[in-house]
Protein: tRNA modification GTPase MnmE
Organism: Qipengyuania citrea
Amino acid sequence: MADTIYALSSGAPPAGIGVIRISGPRAGEALSRMAGGLPPARSPRLRIVRNGEGEALDQALVMWFEGPNTATGDDLAEIHCHGGRAVVAALLAALSSIDGLREAEPGEFTRRAFSNGRIDLAEAEGLADLLSAETELQRRGALLAAGGNLSRQIEGWRDRVLGLAASIEAVIDFADEDDVSLPASFSRELDELIGEIRATSQRPATERLRDGIRVVLAGPPNAGKSSLFNALLSDDAAIVTSEAGTTRDVLERPVSIGGVPLVLVDTAGMRDSGAGAIEEMGIERARKEVANGHIVLWLGAPDELPFGAIQISAKSDLGGGQSEGLEVSAVTGFGLSELTDMLVEKAREILPPVDQIAFNRRQREWAQTAAQSLEAVDTHSDLLIAAENLRAARRALDRLVGRDSTEEMLDALFGRFCIGK
Ligand SMILES: Nc1nc2c(ncn2[C@@H]2O[C@H](COP(=O)(O)OP(=O)(O)OP(=O)(O)O)[C@@H](O)[C@H]2O)c(=O)[nH]1
């Protein structure tokens, strides 16, 4: 019999309310003991909640959901108590003293939902992204996956693969009879399916949305990189001084601008001579950041503009700067809103499209495997091989939504969740 687990599912106390979840075969018994009997299923009731000694701990809203149609697939109870530290601690202590109950591991409620078939892996991954979403775009992207849109799309593709396989099997099974052949639409349906899977796979991976677009500020020492970095962040995260070579290492800060997740990266000033050993290491890292950045802002001379970088003319308030590039001043704020508008626009171009499903890297690999298997289907040669390729495509789509996923993969995914989720 599975353990019965419990945890505080709402945020850290103190808070207005605290939601404690209990999931597993003894959830009903535990709630009944503490709340003086079970409330009717799915109907909240206000009850005095007591510990094993009968001492009143709080007056709370209690709810009872009988499995398997619950969030976890188990029997599930919820206690919505006052969110004070001592109240929550007393309720958790009372639960810990009940036999057969133990505190939940991070992500364990969601893992139960997955193993009980309430959600698939794509939905669980979406949920993990939704919980860590900090910007509007991240929220919208993750909600599509968590809400099952991605899974429904995969299910649709899987059904179409099964349909194609059925046509092939029919021809194989009735090979002796002349009048059984593949439907005329077979090749068209196959090509359409491959096209859809390929198109979705080509969208930027959702990790890019999760991790943010790296905006790298680069240029020679004293160009004004750290000042611009601070102006964009509107805080004093970077050290700003007039001494050349102050920023010796790479400093990065995630920031949400216009709902778009960006990671601003300040780098050491690049110069060819006169740099000490430590500064040299910073310059090396700066070069790497320039190479890896999604967007690179160049605050140096136009004739040294790195490939793909955007020319910025910094310290525009001083005048006499180079005339090329977007003029900005960290001191007066001139040009900053144009700069952020441009960053948001460029970032949106390289992020997964809003309101369309997109894959993470793991999902994309399986989608590409499925597409490859479908592309190998050749109805003009041995149909047994075509049938095997269709089976391989179906298996790849199954893997994508987590049918037969490995324990390590699940540990890694559910470890990303917090306790109580
Ligand atoms: N007038 C004016 N001065 C600026 C502006 N931006 C930066 N400065 C000054 O220029 C000097 C260098 O600025 P930083 O932001 O430290 O330059 P950096 O490119 O990060 O320099 P390193 O860390 O050496 O690579 C400082 O004295 C800043 O106050 C600006 O927009 N206008």
